[in-house]
């Protein structure tokens, strides 16, 4: 009886829609569903093995997060990327995460510092690329990277602020996924993380916030260079 109840719960429409939403979101953030792509229902139904109702529910949910655009009589599209949006998102993320990080440092506890050190150690041990000769994104590194950055601001004491930071991180993830290859061999991301951690452990809020903001600005600089090169290529 209990097994039947659990099976029915797992197969419920709400659970199915959530599962499709999570898979669609992951594919959009990783750029497997590239910016600007039309999300044809026939393709989505076959690719995600789902019916129209849970798919539309998932797409509507993603549209509230600005990851999908619904156009009258034309269907759904992955939200395009732009240099203007990149600049706005980077600036806003730097502002709000700077505030959250400063509050986290003010509220510091030995337990929080220990979690940060452990998260940083695990991130350091994970290879950035699955292939040492050419860039192939390592999902485990991406997961650990997200954990480390989430912990940096996790002690701020404001769940709404943390939630807003997570939304900004999601929207910027698409840009990172498109341009990580360019920065792979020339950028010292590991050192940037180490410098941020040291400032946090030293209780130096000004330096920690400045380093975090510069960390995000450098990401944007690589992405801008890549987008501008592609746009120039399109023009020629």
From TrEMBL:
Residues 14-81 form the HTH gntR-type domain. Keywords: DNA-binding, Transcription, Transcription regulation. It comes from the Bacteria. Gene3D superfamilies: GntR ligand-binding domain-like, Winged helix-like DNA-binding domain superfamily/Winged helix DNA-binding domain. Signal peptide: none annotated. The keyword DNA-binding applies. This is GntR family transcriptional regulator.
């Amino acid at each position: 009886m209990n097994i039947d109840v659990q099976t029915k719960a797992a197969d419920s429409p709400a659970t199915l829609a959530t599962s499709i939403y999570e898979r669609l979101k992951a594919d959009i953030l990783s750029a497997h569903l590239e910016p600007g792509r039309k999300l044809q229902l026939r393709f989505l139904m076959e690719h995600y093995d789902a019916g129209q109702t849970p798919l539309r529910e998932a797409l509507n949910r993603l549209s509230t997060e600005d990851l999908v655009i619904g156009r009258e009589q034309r269907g759904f599209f992955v939200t395009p990327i732009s240099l203007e949006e990149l600049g706005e998102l980077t600036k806003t993320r730097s502002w709000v995460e700077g505030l959250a990080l400063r509050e986290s440092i003010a509220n510091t506890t030995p337990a929080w510092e220990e979690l940060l050190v452990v998260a940083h150690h695990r991130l350091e041990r994970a290879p950035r690329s699955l292939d040492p000769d050419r860039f192939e994104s390592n999902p485990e590194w991406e997961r650990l990277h997200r954990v480390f950055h989430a912990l940096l601001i996790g002690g701020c004491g404001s769940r709404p602020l943390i939630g807003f930071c997570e939304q900004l991180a999601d929207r910027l993830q698409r840009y990172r996924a498109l341009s990580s290859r360019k920065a792979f061999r020339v950028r010292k991301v590991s050192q940037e993380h180490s410098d941020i951690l040291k400032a946090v452990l030293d209780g130096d809020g000004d330096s920690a916030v400045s380093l975090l903001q510069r960390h995000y600005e450098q990401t944007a600089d690589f992405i801008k260079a890549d987008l501008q090169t592609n746009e120039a290529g399109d023009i020629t």
